[in-house]
Input
Amino acid sequence: MQKNTTPDKLRICILKRKRHEKIINDLNSLGVKIHFINDGDVSGAIAVGIKNLNIDMYVGTGGAPEGVLAAAALDCLDCQMQARLVFNNDEEKKKGKKLGITNFNKKYIISDIIKDDVLFFATGVTDGDIVKGIKSDNEYFYSETFFLHKKAKTNIIIKNKIKK
Output
């Protein structure tokens, strides 16, 4: 979805890490509102698809497996993403070639990453913006699981209660 707005009206989520200092400085120079998270880059990316969290975009660098998880959830939420693989050295490029990667500068979108129906589950270990972390009392453990299914258009939080 195109916002047709100015940067100072955007709220961007980013993982607070040293590797993101340049991105943070650039966002600050544009007057963007920044929502920092200390962990959970997958949930930060997913926050874009949850309207009441008011996140317009997630920006950052991270691992490819986390990118695939985020893409799966965002696809279920009818969102889009853009990603590039970052190769830090020739050894990583060599591994990429073995996996069939020929264009090291390709910009991937969700349809490049997710090809069919998808299910996504995430159970909170610690409290986050989407689900609460595991809690306990004298008798039970409590947890919340975020569940998405693309074809069924399922988007629910399952509350679990397990006897100790």
